[in-house]
Specification:
The protein is an alpha+beta fold. The chain is built from 2 helices and 8 strands. Strand 1 (42-50) and strand 2 (57-65) form a beta hairpin. It starts with a helix and ends with a strand.
Length: 190
């Protein structure tokens, strides 16, 4: 990936020095930036550790491609039923109850709600997923409102944490959906 960026940067530099007109140079730079954005592919894998005396553990993969981030979470040790999953403010899972992660990640100061709701939602409001009778659950979520390590603080998920809750997010209670104890935690660290 680094070689593509180096090659594109070198191409932009050569284009700038060889272009006689500033307008033409600006067009070439804009084209190079578009190509770099299209090439950008990132991937993070993290473990979730049990919190609040639970046995809930698992792993999460975030993959960025074509301007979208896809999250796939695979969990075990859950009670059967519906559980909430959110991105929280800080990648700090040091406390036994997971509260060291702070509240939901909400860089745009919106009310808590269902993802995509007209009334608003936090960038960390992923939603709910089901755990089966064996305590296993998975969730896949994809959005163009996140990025991995970009320069946009309203989109960059690095430095945040994934929290799995014991209960269901009601998608309306403020500020967090009344989802209960934080039973699993993992920092989103690059």
């Amino acid at each position: 990936m680094k070689f593509k960026y180096i090659a594109l940067t070198a191409a932009a530099t050569m284009a700038l020095t060889s272009c006689k007109k500033d307008k033409k140079a600006e067009e070439v730079v804009e084209e190079v930036i578009e190509v770099v954005e299209e090439v950008r592919n990132e991937k993070l894998t993290m473990k979730l550790e049990a919190k609040s005396d639970s046995k809930a553990e698992g792993s999460v993969v975030f993959k960025e491609a074509d301007g979208k981030v896809t999250m796939i979470a695979v969990l075990g040790g859950l009670s059967e039923g519906t559980h909430a999953i959110h991105i929280h403010d800080k990648a700090d899972c040091s406390s036994p109850d997971g509260k060291s992660t702070g509240g939901h990640w909400n860089p745009t100061a919106q009310p808590h709600g269902a993802w995509g709701a007209a009334e608003g939602y936090h960038k960390g409001d992923i939603g709910n997923f089901e755990a089966d009778a064996n305590g296993n659950g998975t969730i896949t979520f994809s959005t163009d409102e996140w990025c991995i390590g970009c320069d946009d603080p309203t989109k960059d998920i690095t430095g945040k944490a994934i929290i799995v809750h014991q209960g269901t997010d009601d998608l309306k209670s403020q500020p967090s959906g009344a989802a209960g104890a934080r039973i699993s935690c993992g920092g989103i660290i690059k």
